[in-house]
Amino acid sequence: MTVRGRPVTRRPSAALALPLALLPFLAAPASAPARGERGTRPAPAELSFWSWTPGVREAAGIWNREHPGARVRVQEVVPGIKGGYAALRTALLAGDPPDLAQIEYQVLPGFLLGALGGGEDGRVPAELSRLLPPGAGRRFAGWAWAQVSLGDRVFAVPVDQGPMALLYRRDVLRRHRIAVPRTWAEFERAAAVLRRRDPRVHLASFDPSDAGWVAGLAWQAGARWFRTGGGRWSVTLDDAPTRRVLALWGRMIRAGTVKSQAAYTQAWTADLNRGRVVAWPAPAWGTALVRTAAPENERNWAVAPLPTWGTRSAGNHGGSATVVFARSGARKRAAAAFAWWLSTDPRSLAAQAEKAGIFPAALGRHPLRFGGADAHPVFAEASRRIDPRFRWGPAMLQAFSRVADALGEAAATPGADLAGAMSGARDRVAADIRAHGIDVR
Amino acid sequence: MRRAAWGFLTPFLALFALFFVLPLGYALVRSLYAVRRPGLGFGPASVEFAALRNYAAVLADPVFRSALGRIAVLGLVQIPVMLGLAAVLALLLDAGLARAVRWFRLGFFLPYGVPGVIAVLLWANLYVPQVFPLAWTDLLAPPYVLAAIGNIVTWEYVGYNTLILVTALQAVPRSLIEAAAADGAGPWRTAWSVKLPLLRPALVLTATFSIIGTLQLFSEPAVLRTITPAVSAGYTPNLHVYNTIFTDDLPHLGAAQAVLLAAVTFALSIAFLRVTRRWSAA
User: Fold this and answer.
1) Do residue A401 and residue B247 have CB atoms under 8 angstroms apart?
2) How far apart (Å, rounded) are the C-alpha atoms in residues B156 and B120?
3) Residue A18 φ then ψ, to 5°
4) SS3 category, B111
């Protein structure tokens, strides 16, 4: 068939092919800006701060009103272990980190790899010793200051800490005529007695997946999981104090006097609320969790010093510090000033304590209401007795995974040999550190 | 004609190169290096050529091997169950045995429209005895959690596979169905002897997709990991790769793992297609 002398073909024209094929892409919605809040350019002096602690936003609001030239914009991120650190690592890899970030003590050494090497500007926390007031270290709990320092170089400002004590249901223990245990031997006996008197109730639950909590208990017993000597690391996750602690909990799990359960889950919260678990060896910030988990029962709860192994030492679980990634002189100074303010100003600490129940790392009197009383003295005393020689290794996220997997598996098997599982975890953690190219024994 | 063909192919080839070939090549190159941090690691670091050392580490890694084994077990059970269910549903829909077939088709497909993360969270709540009475025990604990994941995956994708099979059934010539009816075959016999054999190519297709999907399983275990300790960091190969790179900060090792996983996926798909070629050439 011809039209005006030229053949009309039925073959698709090549010129039409390309635009037709691209049509679906033109119709696709434009993607949102990769960094959600960067849709509008931030004000020149605005510092970004990645944090997940409730109350930080309120504290930053106070700072912003008084320092309009150095405003801080808080970006709430997922808690580190659940993905916040992965996001931070990605940002560092991309060379575009926030000016400030919240990092927990145990993970800090992992972010300090290469910090003394130079040439990694913007990818490691800034060194802050010249930017903080003189004598800064004396304002904080000694062990917390040791966590943020490498020698006399300071890489973060401690914000809070988690000295451990025993939170317990005063009314339940009284009803069953059980004295508050002062030693772990008494605790073991009390757990058995309680189970006999009321089979529906457990004295406590053991969370094998919370390696930080297990570490805190081992810390109290005198354990030191990582040592640095002779220019290399040695991993001692299964040293004698740790084995002693895990043997105790393993015995209680096997006897059924303690239940093995993941903490901070719905099941765990329900148990606390309904009085099926009546005691919790908890860090100071756990008081806020009990308040939210068991609001009607909060006045029945009380706090006592953690049962001891016969020594006066205490353990810590949790706590974070603020690191500065800003590199330029003015931004770095402003960021350091904010970090210092966040950790020491009473209004900042009050806002964070109110929303997150944090126990500040800064020394001083900060009321901590719990169960109708002030829990601060108990936790403050514990904080004074935390061993400052406990150090974290260079690959703690991996190590916590290894420990959690090993203990989780052991707790689920009938034999519940928790101490033995730590030896396997120890070897894997050492291999992990070696995989980073670091020297380890 | 040739220009037209290239015109249609170019966008696909460009995107294929950009989003598949390039990243794979990048991962391949990265997997040949490793980081060295002498001493305690706080000093300067260097990236050195490691040849096949990362691959040796991956092959020796018990976590990676057990993750692959776990996925194999899951796939061997979950894929036949899901495809069997999808085939039954597709045959039912095609036979028009239900009224308002359209609504059933939509209903079966609805779970596929639920974002993966939401689906996992929904099921995670249903699995907890304290919350949902039909859960007879903690279904997120070790003996059950793999089956729990398989259940979620089946729920999510059975509708998708049903849709593919229904479409394939609609390509069955009606003359064959009528001939079978004329020969005295009832709906069951028709389904078994006429429709099902003609469904083989579509079944191979959905099975291949499912194999690839199972090997890449990530979001279900990743979300469950935040809820239950029964899901470890290396529960599935893809989760292991993700954690190696973004939690453990070992991008070179993770790249080697990813390349190996891609190779395994590729080999398994090719092998499966080869093995079923004659069977599906009905």
Assistant:
1) yes
2) 10
3) -65, -50
4) helix
In the A/B pair of chains, how many CB contacts fall below 8 A? 136
A 156-185: CB under 8 A from B:
none
Residue A438 has pLDDT above 60, yes or no: yes
Q: Where exactly are the structural domains of chain B? A: 61-249
CA angle in degrees (0–180, nearest 5) for A243-A427-A419: 20
Cβ neighbours of residue A326 closer than 8 Å, sequence gap 6 or more: A47, A99, A100, A126, A332, A334, A335
B61-249 placed in CATH 1.10.3720.10:
yes
3-class secondary structure per residue, A206-219:
ECCCCHHHHHHHHH
d(CA B50, CA A344): 47
Q: Which H helix or E strand runs over A234?
A: strand A232-235
Dihedrals phi, psi of A74, to nearest 5 degrees: -85, 130
Mutate to test the interface with B, among A82, A106, A405 (most CBs of B within 10 A): A405
Give me the phi and psi of A88, to 5 degrees please: -65, -40
Cβ within 8 Å, pair A436-B7: no
Residue B38 and residue A232: Cα distance in Å, rounded?
A: 9
The stretches of A67-163 forming alpha helices (DSSP H) are 84-93, 108-111, 142-147
The torsion angles phi and psi of A183, rounded to 5 degrees, stand at: -130, 165
Residue A11, chain B, CB below 8 Å: the answer is yes
Question: Which amino acid is it at A166?
Answer: L
Cβ of B250 within 8 Å of Cβ of A118? The answer is: no
Handedness of CA A349, A400, A412, A281 (dihedral sign): negative
CB proximity list for A374: less than 8 A, separation 6 or greater: A367, A368
Are residues A216 and A317 in contact, defined by beta-carbon separation less than 8 angstroms? yes
Distance from CA of B181 to the nearest CA of A (A): 41
Q: Which residue has the tokens 């297990």?
A: A214
With 0-12 / 13-18 / 19 or more C-beta atoms within 10 angstroms meaning exposed / middle / buried, residue A8 is: exposed
Residue A166 is inside which H or E element, if any?
A: strand A164-169
In whole angstroms, give the CA distance from residue A23 to residue A5: 33
End-to-end CA distance of chain A: 86
**A209 close to B (CB below 8 A):** yes
From the list A150, A271, A437, which residue is nearest B42 (CB)? A150
Cβ proximity of A270 and A277 under 8 Å? no
Distance from the B259 Cα atom to the nearest Cα atom in chain A, whole angstroms: 18
Written as six digits, the tokens of B258 are: 């990813």
From first to last of the 282 residues of chain B, give the pLDDT tens digit. Answer: 788 888 889 999 999 999 999 999 999 999 999 999 988 989 888 899 998 999 999 998 888 999 999 999 999 999 999 999 999 999 888 877 667 788 888 888 899 999 989 999 999 888 887 777 877 877 887 788 999 999 999 999 999 999 999 999 888 888 888 888 888 888 788 888 888 888 899 999 999 999 999 999 999 998 888 777 778 778 999 999 998 888 788 899 999 999 999 999 999 999 999 999 888 775
Kindly list the residues from chain A whose CB atom is less than 8 angstroms away from the CB atom of residue B45: 113-114, 117, 120, 437
Strands of the sheet containing A301-305, edge to edge, are A279-283, A164-169, A301-305
- Long-range contacts of residues B167-174, Cβ cutoff 8 Å, at least 24 apart: B167/B202, B168/B90, B168/B198, B168/B199, B168/B201, B168/B202, B169/B90, B169/B91, B169/B94, B169/B195, B169/B198, B169/B199, B170/B94, B172/B198
Could you tell me the two tokens for B48?
């050195």
Domains of chain A, first to last: 13-155+320-360 (3.40.190.10), 164-316+390-435 (3.40.190.10)
Q: Is B154 exposed, middle or buried (0-12, 13-18, 19+ CB in 10 A)?
A: buried
